[in-house]
């Protein structure tokens, strides 16, 4: 449902972006069911929207990606295209070809799968004036929640934010404090404003997932805001945005005035007008603690699995919503020892929690390892693998 804004809201340009989500069959299998996969995808879109609602672009509040038009699956023929070569670049090309074949005119389309891309968690074309990215050719983005790599929900959310940032024109933030002009610091010292800091960590567009953590991990740097601002200044680059968003029955989101939302057609529990059918309590399409017979689960079914950072959660027999799990193990290592748990999430940088600034080691053997600035030198705390975005 839309959010109310104050007088600084963008009201002179279109800002609502319709989103279509494509779930690969291997992601559905990994999540246990289409309902579970759908809920995981929607939670990530909600997080994306919450961040952009608070992001100021050109000194105005930014885009809204809440308007999800549909959750799609692929045909068997389309699935076979992905199986020919398991490569992130090729899969992104295939996905964009499928979008054109389907004539998908949403301003953003997201593919979620569970392929193992050897450390690559997401991929997208950077939005440019030449027509790639948002509202243009190759506007689809690919993210993976691989079966073979333990990816937390918080990291999954960060990868989605990062890839959407690319389609809105953002390049990677510089890796270190900039003292001179270099590949990652094209403007020299002026680019230091985009590197993050010791206390709050790196920003969304930092190129290495191992550094996601800290207060900045849900924020775009000044460089990213400038990149996005230039895109929003070009009307042709935001032509797929709309100026308003009404409540939409059929987008799988239970919004104001709706009792359920089954998607594009009614199901056994919910009508096509988003109202529960007679004698039905809920729809499993929308809630994890709802049975297939449209009743609230009373068997204490597990609805959240235990992770390093939070406990398992069970249906309480009262609500169709899954109760929030109990937070566990604050400051325990997670994400390949690159982060620590805080308030049930694996989000904080290990270096920052131990009181050290993070740094990029110059040793080739440590490029994919979390390293911290200790006693004036870049040293590793824990030799674990990292991932790229």
Automatic annotation (TrEMBL):
<dbReference type="GO" id="GO:0006509">
    <property type="term" value="P:membrane protein ectodomain proteolysis"/>
</dbReference>
<protein>
    <submittedName>
        <fullName>Disintegrin and metalloproteinase domain-containing protein 10 (Trinotate prediction)</fullName>
    </submittedName>
</protein>
<dbReference type="InterPro" id="IPR001762">
    <property type="entry name" value="Disintegrin_dom"/>
</dbReference>
<dbReference type="Pfam" id="PF00200">
    <property type="entry name" value="Disintegrin"/>
</dbReference>
<keyword id="KW-1015">Disulfide bond</keyword>
<dbReference type="GO" id="GO:0005886">
    <property type="term" value="C:plasma membrane"/>
</dbReference>
<feature type="active site">
    <location>
        <position position="163"/>
    </location>
</feature>
<feature type="binding site">
    <location>
        <position position="162"/>
    </location>
    <ligand>
        <name>Zn(2+)</name>
    </ligand>
</feature>
<keyword id="KW-0479">Metal-binding</keyword>
<dbReference type="GO" id="GO:0046872">
    <property type="term" value="F:metal ion binding"/>
</dbReference>
<dbReference type="GO" id="GO:0004222">
    <property type="term" value="F:metalloendopeptidase activity"/>
</dbReference>
<feature type="domain" description="Peptidase M12B">
    <location>
        <begin position="15"/>
        <end position="234"/>
    </location>
</feature>
<feature type="binding site">
    <location>
        <position position="166"/>
    </location>
    <ligand>
        <name>Zn(2+)</name>
    </ligand>
</feature>
<keyword id="KW-0401">Integrin</keyword>
<dbReference type="InterPro" id="IPR051489">
    <property type="entry name" value="ADAM_Metalloproteinase"/>
</dbReference>
<dbReference type="InterPro" id="IPR024079">
    <property type="entry name" value="MetalloPept_cat_dom_sf"/>
</dbReference>
<dbReference type="Pfam" id="PF13574">
    <property type="entry name" value="Reprolysin_2"/>
</dbReference>
<feature type="domain" description="Disintegrin">
    <location>
        <begin position="246"/>
        <end position="330"/>
    </location>
</feature>
<dbReference type="InterPro" id="IPR001590">
    <property type="entry name" value="Peptidase_M12B"/>
</dbReference>
<keyword id="KW-0862">Zinc</keyword>
<dbReference type="InterPro" id="IPR036436">
    <property type="entry name" value="Disintegrin_dom_sf"/>
</dbReference>
<dbReference type="GO" id="GO:0007229">
    <property type="term" value="P:integrin-mediated signaling pathway"/>
</dbReference>
<feature type="binding site">
    <location>
        <position position="172"/>
    </location>
    <ligand>
        <name>Zn(2+)</name>
    </ligand>
</feature>
């Amino acid at each position: 449902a839309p959010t109310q804004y104050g007088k600084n809201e963008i009201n002179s340009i279109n800002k609502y972006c319709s989103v279509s989500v494509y779930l690969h069959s291997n992601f559905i299998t990994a999540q246990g069911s289409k309902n579970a996969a759908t809920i995981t995808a929607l939670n990530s879109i909600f997080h994306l929207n919450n961040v952009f609602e608070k992001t100021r672009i050109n000194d105005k509040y930014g885009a809204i990606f809440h308007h999800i038009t549909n959750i799609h699956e692929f045909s068997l023929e389309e699935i076979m295209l992905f199986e020919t070569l398991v490569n992130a670049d090729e899969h992104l090309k295939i996905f964009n070809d499928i979008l054109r074949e389907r004539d998908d005119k949403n301003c953003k389309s997201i593919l979620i799968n569970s392929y193992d891309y050897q450390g690559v968690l997401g991929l997208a074309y950077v939005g440019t004036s030449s027509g790639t990215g948002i509202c243009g050719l190759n506007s689809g983005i690919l993210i993976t929640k691989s079966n073979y790599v333990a990816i937390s929900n918080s990291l999954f959310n960060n990868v989605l934010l990062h890839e959407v940032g690319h389609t809105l024109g953002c390049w990677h933030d510089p890796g270190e404090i900039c003292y001179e002009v270099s590949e990652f610091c094209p403007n020299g010292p002026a680019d230091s404003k985009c590197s993050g800091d010791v206390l709050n960590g790196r920003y969304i567009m930092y190129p290495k997932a191992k550094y996601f953590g800290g207060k900045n991990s849900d924020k775009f740097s000044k460089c990213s805001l400038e990149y996005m601002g230039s895109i929003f200044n070009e009307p042709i680059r935001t032509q797929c945005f709309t100026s308003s968003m009404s409540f939409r029955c059929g987008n799988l989101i239970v919004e104001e005035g709706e009792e359920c939302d089954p998607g594009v057609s009614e199901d056994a529990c919910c009508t096509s007008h988003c109202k529960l059918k007679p004698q039905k309590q809920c729809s499993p399409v929308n809630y994890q603690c709802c049975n297939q017979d449209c009743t609230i689960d009373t068997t204490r079914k597990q609805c959240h699995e235990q992770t390093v950072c939070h406990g398992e959660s069970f249906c309480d027999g009262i609500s169709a919503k899954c109760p929030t799990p109990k937070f566990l193990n604050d400051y325990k290592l997670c994400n390949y020892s690159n982060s620590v748990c805080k308030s049930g999430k694996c989000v904080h940088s290990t270096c920052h929690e131990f009181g050290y600034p993070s740094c990029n080691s110059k040793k080739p053997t440590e490029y994919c390892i979390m390293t911290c600035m200790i006693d004036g030198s870049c040293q590793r705390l824990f030799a674990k693998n990292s991932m790229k975005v």
